[in-house]
Amino acid sequence: MTTTTAQIISTLAEGKLTVEVAQTELPEPKGSQILVKMEAAPINPSDLAVLTGPADLAGAEYSPGRFVADMPEPFYSGQKARHGMRLPVGNEGAGEVVAAGDDEYAQSLIGQRVACVPGTAYSEYCIADAMLSLPLGELSSEQGASAFVNPMTALGFVETARAAGQNAIIHTAAASNLGQMLLKICQEDDIALVNIVRKSEQADMLRDMGATHVVNSADEDFFSQLCAAIEETDAYFGFDPIGGGQMTDTCFRAMEQVAARNMSEYSRYGSDQAKKMFIYGRLDLGPTILTPAYGFGWTLSGWLLTPFLQQAGMETVLRMRQRVLEGLTTTFASSYKRKVNLEEMLTREAVLEYSQMKTGEKYLVTP
Amino acid sequence: MTTTTAQIISTLAEGKLTVEVAQTELPEPKGSQILVKMEAAPINPSDLAVLTGPADLAGAEYSPGRFVADMPEPFYSGQKARHGMRLPVGNEGAGEVVAAGDDEYAQSLIGQRVACVPGTAYSEYCIADAMLSLPLGELSSEQGASAFVNPMTALGFVETARAAGQNAIIHTAAASNLGQMLLKICQEDDIALVNIVRKSEQADMLRDMGATHVVNSADEDFFSQLCAAIEETDAYFGFDPIGGGQMTDTCFRAMEQVAARNMSEYSRYGSDQAKKMFIYGRLDLGPTILTPAYGFGWTLSGWLLTPFLQQAGMETVLRMRQRVLEGLTTTFASSYKRKVNLEEMLTREAVLEYSQMKTGEKYLVTP
Do B268 and A87 touch (CB under 8 A)? Predict the structure, then answer.
């Protein structure tokens, strides 16, 4: 028995991005698959890559349940692999399990509310994997909607740092939802965290949450603040969701200056302090700029949740998930600025707002 | 008993770089130290960082045994740690051991010709570490002068690749002295090598040496040549001495395009093929530009010989050194365009030539 569902579909073709509510037939769930009636799904920055990307949203044509926007170069050609493909959107969400494949565990979820990672979350109904789903018990779908991407990413940073023998982390977008989770995790796990924010209100908010090292990139003495925080914490390991511009470069420069200060002898090749930064998002689609100002003892990597989880192994992933479930209303709680249904999420007003990815202005889709 | 020696000294102060032949007193060698009467020392790109850097060499004032050049910003301020310091120059060279500390091995070297890594190689006499020196036997100092930096770096690339489970390497300056050594090593060790060159003469030279995959960045279809070579070799691991500009970015883009072609399913996050590049030099002091065109499965690192050797451990280093010694007139042979003494190396004509770091135009200092 198939299920008909309304679903947000994003298509890139002939220089234009079309995003629309479309009707799709879902096959019957098989094996460990579950069919979930979706109740809530967040719009995360990682969803926007497919949902909007660098399209000209201000100049787009909006009609009920649909918008069509120009996709500028080099971004149109750069996404060649998806030209003409009809892509569903929405990494994660929560809802009620209404059917399941014949796998025993999947069957046991029928009638329960679960958080899930279908990749098609902006839909009335989704097919998801029972193994990646989290039964929510008494919690609401709104409380469980963001149980995967941000919590597992923030925990993943701490796991990554620990695996590298690090007890201190720099985070360059510390006021974000994810940044606040990371702060709470680091407080619980006694890891030093250097929080970089862009506004003094954000600095105040984090300090109110108990953050010790908060550095505002809008301040004139930002660089010396950052050096001081690195000196105090020994944070030579950082995570950056901005990607474009010079934020990772600035962190490397500050790390090197602090390390060089503590050297007994001058070296033409820079300090021998290993410095590592990870880019885990692309809030800025411009190029990443690295200046030759910190020798050769540095590493810059992309960081993505799925390969991290694959590498981490089942035991680590289960431990992380259990911790998320226990902290879903505290450490891992998310807040939303506005709720929209599938049609409302494609209006000009909504698109122009959530595509800004402003801190504290997250949208929740309630299909 | 101290030894008086003429020595090249580089000093950065008050916006100016002064390089001169100066007289220095060397202390008596102690422990495992040896005193070497230097006969030959190459000018490597790694020496130029201290010797000339981005100073205005064309506009400099030259007098016998000395030049004074403006050091432009931001490079002057960027090298704050060395302002006012009198730095000797010259990583490596070869000569005759004339005295030694009381260490037994050091004593046994007296009267022998050795390759050594004193860091002060542009001098009549140097203090070096016997443990890092290589007895040359019947070989001349000219044959042994470049026994350390290029051979150990080229071997280090192969060791690094092997440790990461790689059987193919991209090298972005393949026609250089080091590039030719790497080609021979890869031929001996059956590792696929993608050679990127800038001129068709260089491509011809490498093909004459038996190179299979040679790609010319000056060709219009460079990018598709590079993709084809990656497809044939599975080279997702590369080394780049240029640093500035977009060469590493280009390699990452080509790797990703090849990996994406071979994917069965479209992924918004790019391929899951791990891509790794190392920057081991700064022939271009401009910023490194990374575009957001290859997902998050990439790592860019600095690579430097000394920390690599420290990490590799004594056994690996001894094995590498033995191989260098055996191949010093074949695999690891260096050639020089011109020989200069200490005064001649500071003339306008010489400085302007060797500071270009042109392929095949290496200088040898014979104090």
Answer: yes
CATH 3.40.50.720 range(s) for chain A read 150-307
β-strand pairing of B168-171 with B192-197:
parallel
Task: Give me the residue from B81, B292, B297 closest to A282, CB to CB.
Answer: B292
Report yes or no: B343 and B64 within 8 Å, Cβ to Cβ. yes
Q: In what order do the strands lie in the sheet with B3-13?
A: B61-63, B66-70, B16-26, B3-13, B86-88
CB contact under 8 A, A300 and B303: no
The residues of chain A that CATH labels 3.90.180.10 are 3-146+334-365
Q: How many whole angstroms from its chain centre is CA A269?
A: 36
For residue A350, the distance in angstroms to the closest alpha carbon of chain B comes to 23
Which superfamily does CATH assign the domain made up of A3-146+334-365 to? Medium-chain alcohol dehydrogenases, catalytic domain (3.90.180.10)
Distance from CA of A182 to the nearest CA of B (A): 20
Q: Taking a C-beta distance cutoff of 8 angstroms, is the pair B213, B168 a contact?
A: no
Instruction: Kindly identify which residue of chain B lies nearest to residue A310, measuring between CA atoms.
Output: B272
Tokens 């709470």 locate to A184
Task: Name every chain A residue with its beta carbon within 8 A of the beta carbon of B280.
Answer: 296
Q: CATH number for B150-307: choose from 3.50.50.60, 3.30.70.20, 3.40.50.460, 3.40.50.720.
A: 3.40.50.720
In order along its 367 residues, chain A shows pLDDT tens digits of 799 999 999 999 999 999 999 999 999 999 999 999 999 999 998 899 899 989 999 999 999 999 999 999 888 987 888 899 999 999 999 999 999 999 999 999 999 999 999 999 999 999 999 988 999 999 999 999 999 999 999 999 999 999 999 999 999 999 999 999 999 999 999 999 999 999 999 999 999 999 999 999 999 999 999 999 999 999 999 999 999 999 999 999 999 999 988 877 777 778 889 999 999 998 888 999 999 889 899 999 999 998 999 899 889 988 999 999 999 999 999 989 999 999 999 999 999 999 988 877 889 999 8
| Nearest beta carbon to residue B292 from set A268, A280, A285 | A285
The answer to whether B347 and B321 are in contact (CB under 8 A) is no
Buried b (16+ CB within 10 A) or exposed e, B245-276: ebbbbbbbbbbbbbbbeeeeeeebbbbebbbb
